[in-house]
Amino acid sequence: MKIAIIGGGAIGLLFAYYLNQKHHVVLYVRNRQQMDILRRKGLFLHKKDHTYKTELEVRNISDWGRFDEDVSIICVKQYHLKNLLDESGLTETHPLIFVQNGMGHLKIIDKLPTQNVSVATVEHGALKSGDCEVIHTGEGLTRIAVYRGENQELLQRLIDPLGDDFPFITEKDYYKMLVKKLVVNAVINPLTAVLKVPNGQLLDNPRYFELLTGLFHEVKAVLHLENEKEYFNNLLQVCRNTAKNRSSMLKDIEEQRPTEIDAILGFLLEEAAERNIPAPYTTMLYQMIKGIELQNMEG
Ligand code: PAF
């Protein structure tokens, strides 16, 4: 299959490396310097003391939608989505797969004329260590579900050749899948970003573990989660699998980029307000991250 991957961040590079082993990947990046270096040197993946290289086709993001890929996997941050989609020359029939944290992107997807849309959540740890380098810091999996349209066959063609090297699981219920990931991101991302620790510290430091538990209970109440244990165990599992990883929000803060806080805790605060549920942990962490973003912008 010919697959467009949009975005040259950690997840875009991780997907590009693995999918290029079994498919023909075209990676679309915004930054010209990154495009040049990827074309010249190739893409490097570092995993457990080994380095692997792949050569792949790389184009500028402004050209996306003008070529003949079978499907596009969109790996940009949620806050870049609107501009990206507004500027693209996509047709209604071109299938899209969205890989964003939080739930905010569903509102954007709902306004698109695209017929076939899937959503995915990523449980890998990945760290971009240069324009053409990514470190696979935590091996997890990708969950994927149809959001609208008839995508089952296309998803099977995409996933089947990948096998266990880069596993995908198809889920029937996209909403439950996104909520599960939202719980993970709502707890791990802001806590690690404020405490400036890798994910595993939230399990290893008993004080931080108390914070994790307290925040989880609040998120659970806001989202009316029924099977609490299932969501909590999943949170602990992802934390363990990505123990050495610095969360995407921590990386955003460290590199003075905007974070995905609005798509994650912002979304939860709207839900809490609608349902009249007190959310002190969520409010405090939201304000802290917004404050750090402001400080980074001014400094
Ligand atoms: O956003 C992230 O960093 C990732 O989704 C996760 C799974 C929390 C691992 O760090």
Question: What would you say this structure looks like, in words?
Answer:
The structure is a single chain. The chain is an alpha/beta fold. The chain has two domains: 2-172, Rossmann fold, CATH 3.40.50; 176-294, N-(1-d-carboxylethyl)-l-norvaline Dehydrogenase, domain 2 (Orthogonal Bundle), CATH 1.10.1040. 47% of the residues lie in helices and 20% in strands. It has twelve helices and twelve strands. The strands form two sheets. Strands 5-2-1-6-7-8-11-12 form an eight-stranded mixed β-sheet. Strands 4-3-10-9 form a four-stranded mixed β-sheet. β9 and β10 (133-138) form a beta hairpin. α6 (174-195) packs across α9 (228-241), α6 crosses α10 and α6 (174-195) crosses α12. The longest helix has 22 residues, at 174-195. The radius of gyration is 19 Å and the shape is globular. The protein starts with a strand and ends with a helix. Bound molecules: pantoate. Pantoate (PAF) is lined by residues 101, 123, 125, 184-185, 188-189, 199, 238, 242, 245, 247-248. The site of pantoate has 13 residues, from α6.
- What oligomeric state do the depicted chains represent? single chain
Strand content bin: 15-25%
Helices and strands: which structural class?
alpha/beta
Architecture of the largest domain, CATH level 2?
3-Layer(aba) Sandwich
Biggest sheet character: 8 strands, mixed
End-to-end distance, in Å?
46 Å
> What low-confidence regions span 5 or more consecutive residues with pLDDT below 50?
none
Secondary structure: number of strands: 12
Principal-axis shape equals globular
Bound molecules: pantoate
User: For the record, what is the CATH homologous superfamily label of the largest domain?
Assistant: NAD(P)-binding Rossmann-like Domain
H/E element sequence: EHEHEEEEHEHEEEEHEHHHHHHH
Q: Strands of the largest sheet, in order across it?
A: 5-2-1-6-7-8-11-12
CATH topology grouping of the largest domain: Rossmann fold
Number of helices: 12
Text of the CATH class of the largest domain: Alpha Beta
Question: In percent, how helical is the residue content?
Answer: 40-55%
Mean pLDDT, rounded to whole units?
94
* The number of domains: 2
Radius of gyration: 19 Å
